[in-house]
Predict the 3D structure of the following.
Amino acid sequence: MNRPATPCTPRLLACTLLILHGISQPHSSWAEKPPPLPPSLSTEQNPEADSRMGHKKFREGNYQQAMIYLRYAEKDGDLEAAYLIGLMYYKGLGMQQPDLNEARKWLIKAAWGKNIHAQILVGGMFESGTGVTKDIKNAIKWYGRAARLGSREAATIMARLKITHPDLVNEHLKHCTPRPHEGIIPQIKKFFYGC
């Protein structure tokens, strides 16, 4: 029985060619420089499909293909894709070793885009000094941002830091004054969640 051929888009063809030419195998140059995006594919306007496919490949553990799709999705403004790219660099997924400099770049981009997971991870990097200079004040800033967006994990971390570094947390909280018309609830949230 004859089945209809699967339509071959330029993006699918180029991704297949990249995989066939060695991108699918981990190699050390990935830690230094990600595989280039073929310029002919940047005209394709389907960021949702790239994002879905990148997430799917990430969940399947096919990190090289995930990197390709997620880079396209991120190029189209998907900050969740930036977080996953940063996570792959941070953990060394699909490469021989982690690249904390690249991880920091991608995770901070996602964190500025209000990705809670990225904000917590960046806060953790600053708290532990992983890939960055250890800076508790910056860690508190990123945990506080995640807490303001509703992260219970970040709120718990802020409560722990309020015990170990009360002066730094209180300094951070000074800049998070509630508006007069908001009443007492924001003041309680400010204490527990960081702002």
